[in-house]
Amino acid sequence: MSSLFSQLAVLGSSLTLIFALMLLWHRSVDAYTTAFAWQSVVLAGIVAVVAYFERDPELYFVAAMLLLLKGWLIPRLLRRMEGPFGAEQELQPYVNTATSLLISGLLVLFAYAVCRPLVALSHLPTRAGMPLALGLIFVSLFVIASRKKALTQVIGFLMLENGIALLAVLGTYGIPLVVEIGVFLDLLLGFMVMQLFVYRIHETFESLDVEQLGRLKH
Amino acid sequence: MTLMGTLVTGAIVCYLAGALAALLGNDRWGRILGAWGAASGAAISLSLGMVALASGSVFSAVFDFPSLTGFALRIDGLSAPFLILTGLVGAASSVYGAGYSAAYTGVYSLRKLGALFNLLLLTLTLQVMADNALTFLLLWEAMSLVAYLLVLTEHREPATVRAANWYLAITHVGFAALLAMFFLLSAGDLSTAFDTLRANAPVPTQRNAIFILALLGFSAKAGLIPLHVWLPMAHPVAPSHVSALLSGVVIKMGVYGFCRIVLDLMSGGPAWWGGLALALGVASALFGVLYALMEHDLKRLLAYHSVENIGIIFIGIGAGLMFQSYGLMSLAALGFVAALYHTINHACFKGLLFLGAGSVLHATHTRNMEEMGGLIKKMPRTALMFLIGAASISALPPLNGFASEWLIFQTLLGGSHIPEPAVALMIPIAVALLALSGGLAMACFVKAFGITFLAIARSPAAEKAHEAPLSMQAGMGILGLACIGLGLTPFFVVPVLGRALAGLDRLAWETTVFSLTLPLNTPATFGSMSSPLLAAGLLILLGLIPLALWVIGANRRTRVGDTWGCGRIAQTPRMQYTATAFAEPLRRVFAELYRPTKDLSIDFHPESKYFVQSIEYQSEIHPWFEKLLYQPLIGIFHRIADRVRWIQAGWLGLYLTYMLVGLIALLVLAWWTP
């Protein structure tokens, strides 16, 4: 049973990482939103699996919230935002696809290296997924740093958030429910603020290219 | 609760209530109630200091409220003189401020001014009670920030903002030094009680580092050369009752801190510590007064005199430290007592002078002395008060400045037989330079009083001047009386102040007495000089002058005419002596120091150059050593800022990359370190 649990955790973690890597070779924001939605669904699945094996009813609630908020509500809002801006595409990121994939590979390797002492200390069956969660955090950060469109960055940030949630659920079987609810609220508010910024950036520069923000200096 | 505990609580409650009233009240009642809170709090601080000195008892309290853990207060002998001066100047300036700040109604925020004034007094009162490094540093920073905000009261003037920024920069350099000093002193644990620190002595090299850092940190606050530059900038631009507090009390916290750390916690050190403090004191005294002489802005002039007087205080402390290291304990005690005495005295007369200058500013709306004149007829009481302050700061007997400067001279002369060549050389030089700065200070205040109050008005504003309102007169009156009282009772004050040293190591504080006899203890060839006899003789000679005039039958008929009338019928202000003219001889004597630049432009009549239409004369002085020290420093900072500017490329991707790289670097660091 325990090995099934462990295998499910690793499978789920790998899937979330793959959805993050999808951002690196796709060009359309629409595909990004889909990837994020699926990633969130998988994350909710992992939480549900942990809840099932650990018999923790609170985690079912968290999984439901994840599904509702990140799997449905935020992707919906994201798709609605795409509307006014037309088909914004990530045409020319700072780093090209091949190099991006290479760097992401290195980042995941680094995550494995960093996690070694952590994995050695832990006795949880889910420990094998932790390097993958950390890798997801690194890759999301890299996406935020290397992409130019504001919407891509927002999605990168949301994936970073997913990575943190994944690490928490794999490493400690989730955080207290109050904190979890606080994080959800935070996320929603953060997303709204970012949404506002995206609108303002578009209003000011007629584009969602954050490179334009450089013009604000001077 | 003990009497002192009640008083401490009372003072805190009064200040907080005052701050609250100032914040909540309307313009009129907020101002008056805020001043009441401050004045009653200050009165309690004053009585607290007096009780502590009179009874010799120690108050201590350690707070253990959840939010105040590690907060410890203690009042001992050394805190008491500073509580007294905080109370005296605080009470006077809050009474004065009630009237003075009315002029700010509708122009600048009275609420902020009243509340911050109360908070400043609160932090000052608590500062001298701090009993561990944590409390001390917290209050220090709070005091600095509140003072900064008070300097910023007239925040729409660019000069004010500039001055406040200078103050903030220098005070934070000092704070950094103090932080490092306390970390060294308490071996990393800032909440160690001062009692524990007293007991365990650090190793000598560390002691030297602690001393240097303490000197740096506290001289930045006190305004010792070369960290004095913020005083002449920040004191003039603050509201005058705040200037009185800044110059009278805030800079004294530097003196307090220095005494607390060097005398109390480290109980003195090698002779060069004292020598360094003495040398810096002499330099400050001399340069302070020399720059004051060239100032025509009344409040800037006073601010430069604060540099001078802080120098005099440090001369006393430095001499005391030096004698302590040579084992001359009663002489050392005399030096410290003299320094403490001068600290209180300076607080009184400088507070009084700033309040007086404030009244003049209030009446004429200018700080430029060249536009004043004749004010003694328009505002006689302010003039009298300013005269008392001026006579005190010029060390004229029987006022308080004389008593303490006399004691400092006595201390220095008493040390003239230390058989160390460096000391034997240093002390006569210090005496000579101190005497020189005393003389120059006198000249400076002849100028300040004469140009401001005497002769005839130089501008329409001075002509329309009016006497200050009653509250302002009362504020000045308190300090005027204090100046006279402290001057007349040195025989009482000095032994009482000696108790301030009671807790200090090995100091023969019981023997500190005031005497008018100059102890010229040179080997028997010289003998002792009875100075009281000389003074009495001089007084008698002075009394003989009218007698002699009467004897030779001088003309005693009273005639009424204009001042400096010279028999002319019509006089214009342009005929009289100006402040620039008065200072001109000294400007020439010390030209090497001042590096004056002259700008003379004469507008001739087109027909003949023997007819002059107008002459414009401008002369500025350039404090070259300030340029030498600060300009390169600022230049270096600018260059570094330019170099590192590329980090701020204004490019979002780069900023985000910083975060990624930072995260990875931290993880690698955590990975490598075991």
Characterization of the model:
The complex is a heterodimer of chains A (218) and B (674). With 218 residues, chain A is an all-alpha fold. Chain A has one domain. Chain A has seven helices and no strands. Chain A has helices at residues 2-25, 29-54, 57-85, 97-121, 130-146, 150-172, 177-205. In chain A, helix 1 (2-25) runs antiparallel to helix 6 and helix 2 (29-54) runs parallel beside helix 6. Chain B has 674 residues and is mostly helical. In chain B, the strands form two sheets. A two-stranded antiparallel sheet of chain B has the order 1-2. A two-stranded antiparallel ribbon of chain B has the order 3-4. Chain A binds chain B through residues 94, 110, 113-114, 117, 138, 141-142, 144-146, 148, 153, 210-211, 213-214, 216-218, and chain B through 648-653, 656-657, 659-660, 663-664, 667-668, 671.
Distance between the termini of chain A: 62 Å
The ordered string of helix (H) and strand (E) elements of chain B is HHEEHHHHHHHHHHHHHHHHHHHHHHEEHH
**What low-confidence regions of chain A span 5 or more consecutive residues with pLDDT below 50?**
none
Outline of chain B: globular
Largest sheet of chain A at a glance? none
Major sheet size, sense and barrel closure of chain B = 2 strands, antiparallel
Number of strands of chain B: 4
Separate helix tally of chain B: 26
Kindly estimate the percentage of residues of chain A that lie in beta strands according to DSSP.
under 5%
Number of strands of chain A: 0
Tell me the Rg of chain A in angstroms: 18 Å
Specify the overall morphology of chain A: globular
Order of neighbouring strands in the sheet with most strands of chain B: 1-2
